[in-house]
Write a sequence for this structure.
């Protein structure tokens, strides 16, 4: 038999039971980290215990949506549950992506319960050097109507 004495953990467990598991219409949030690594934007989601085929990744315009479902593990008919803390149900996260990201070349990997999504920085958003014309190369820009 397992026993705990952490009252705050017990309160969290009770709150989870009252709100129920996440559903497709009302998913629970999943923790994530987001950072820039070189010429890529990286987002890592913690979704342990979820099989790769239970993860959906969609991008529409500049909205990245990740949904995952953790299903109950099949137990023997004579198994008796003493403690159940691992959340089940649907988990989801939506992220608005900047226009400076290349959503056509997103890559995703799933290993050890962590989904890592890599989004390249768009070529047009990368810093570039602008050359300056000097002397004969200089051009004058004029606009609009001329005055007499």
């Amino acid at each position: 038999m397992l026993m705990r004495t952490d009252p705050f953990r017990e309160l969290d467990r009770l709150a989870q039971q009252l709100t129920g598991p996440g559903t497709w219409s009302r998913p629970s949030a999943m923790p994530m980290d987001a950072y820039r690594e070189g010429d890529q934007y990286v987002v890592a989601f913690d979704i342990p215990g979820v099989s790769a085929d239970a993860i959906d990744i969609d991008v529409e315009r500049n909205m990245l949506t990740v949904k995952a479902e953790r299903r109950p593990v099949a137990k023997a008919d004579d198994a008796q549950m003493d403690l159940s803390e691992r959340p089940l149900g649907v988990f989801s996260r939506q992220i608005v992506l900047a226009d400076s990201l290349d959503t056509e070349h997103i890559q995703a990997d799933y290993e050890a319960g962590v989904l890592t999504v890599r989004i390249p920085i768009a070529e047009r958003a990368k810093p570039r050097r602008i050359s300056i014309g000097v002397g004969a190369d200089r051009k004058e820009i004029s606009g609009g109507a001329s005055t007499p």
Strands lie at 28-29, 32-37, 40-46, 55-60, 63-70, 89-96, 107-111, 114-120.
